[in-house]
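Hi X.,

You mentioned you wanted examples for the new student's onboarding notes, showing what a folding record looks like when two proteins sit in one file. Here is a clean example. The first protein comes first, with its sequence line followed by its structure tokens.
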Amino acid sequence: MTQDDSTLEPPSEGPTPSVRDENNRHLLGELRYNSVQNVLVSGIFVIFFAQHSGSTMLWTWWSGFAVLVAVRAGVLRWMEVAQPVNEPMCSKAIYACIGATALAWGFAPLACVPSHSEMSFILAVSWVSIVVLGGAGAFQDDPIATAVLALPATLPSIVILLANQDRTSYVVVAALGLIYAHLAIGVVRARRARAIELQLKDENANLMAEYQSQARLASAEIERRLHMERELRAARHRAERLSSLDGLTGIANRRYFDEQLESELARTFRAQKPVGLVLMDVDCFKQYNDTLGHGAGDDCLAEIGKILAGYARRSGDLAARYGGEEFVLLLPESDLAAALGIAESVRMSIIERAIPHPASEVAAVVTASFGVASLTPGAEHTARQLVEAADRALYQAKNAGRNRVESAA
């Protein structure tokens, strides 16, 4: 039994989402949840710096920022609901939302300029830098999202600081440079870790697919071997059964009878039950063959076998061909009287079958002689003793004129 290997491949579970699509979903989720945070943080920023600057400009900036965040939230929501969305288009829209928000934060320190306080401006720049660092941490290993967030949010302030041409401004710019250099290194490391994670994920998926394929192959091989084992067991059973049958009559043969006799004697010895044995010989069978031919003789023996098999009715009873024209009935748990009764019934059934025998010295039809023996096995008894007793009784039946039943003395 073979099986096509193509049927053992793991079933397809649909197309695997691309890295870009997975990244887009992550960014959409992060941006959706930080919209409210942006509004709250920008509100705190305005309240904190309003006392040092012209309140009109700060509140104007905050109003525009809130409108921008609301529009951004609507765009992001549309991209989540709309199906399907082209991946490159979706990525550009997400980066545009990030860049617009970052640029709005980049103008936040400029709203503090009317205060003419350099320290206030530097403090605002620091505030925005903290916002950028917090937002970049949510973008994992996406360098584009990080750059789109960091550059628009800090470039306007850096330009103004460099234009001041004083030591404090240079120190702040250098500090910002170090901060963003550290951020860039973190992005590179995160990207490398992400690449390793994806590689391990792919390797695990391949290993799992290979394991499932090997498991299916092993299961199919086990099933094939079990099927072969069942077939071999059935063939062996058929062979054993055929080896225990007589080819002509279809009942048990001499070898199987000998095995069963030994087994039944051992069993009845333990149970202290009697064992009956009927040995039968077809009368004048040589003359039957000589007159009608061996083909007719075989048909006669087959008919006798059928009659005998009809009397092996109980579990353990056995009808067998003993050899030539001799047959035997093994009758466990049957005493001599029961065995004699069955032998007489068989004798009458053969006569009633009325198989013509023109050369018989006994009758015009086929008849048979029977020797019957029975014993309750003891430690000193053997199978041979029981067979010899039945054989002596059969000899008596033949000497007494055949077509009769005799029992062992």
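Then the second protein repeats the pattern, sequence line and then tokens:
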Amino acid sequence: MSQDLKTAIVELDRDAVPALVTQRLEAGDDPLEILGDCRAGMTLVGERFEEGEYFLAELLISAELFKEAVALLDPHLEEAGSRETAGVVVLATMRGDIHDLGKNIFATLLRAHAFEVHDLGVNVEPTHLVDEVQELKPDFVGFSSLITTAFDSTRQAIEMLEDKGLRAGVKIMLGGGVTTPGLAKHLRADFQTSDASTGVTYCLEEAAAAGT
């Protein structure tokens, strides 16, 4: 049964995924085990994407399937009382940009790998991001940009994190088609990518190294 669920996600079967999740819940399967199988399927989808077998459309469909599965599992996971967490991530598209497709895909893939993700949305003010970081104490903060008008507010946010002593121990990530390694160096970010799967790999490696 577990292989059926993983296969359904990999094959992007819109009908089978929710049906299998529901069937397994009704059969009394551990919701954490079901979630693990969903994550395993998403990992395989990511591998196909990296190998060029799947493209953005397939990635989007798999992300929607995973979110639907998690929505079915959430009440049962809350009853179980625990979820493993690979790390805490805060994501935002900063003031000056309202694009969020790439950020949303990244957030879903992170959740599929057991990260606790707090997505602050789009057109986010630097002060709001800093307040959230201060409260949530994340391991990673990701800034998504599709247009360059968000660069100034991104810079302000990073500087404010430094000024408030919140930068230490937090990995700053830049993502989006207009970001570059040079920009990351200029803004003193730790990592830059325009590929969601590469970003997930970075978070997994850093979390493992930190023993999160």
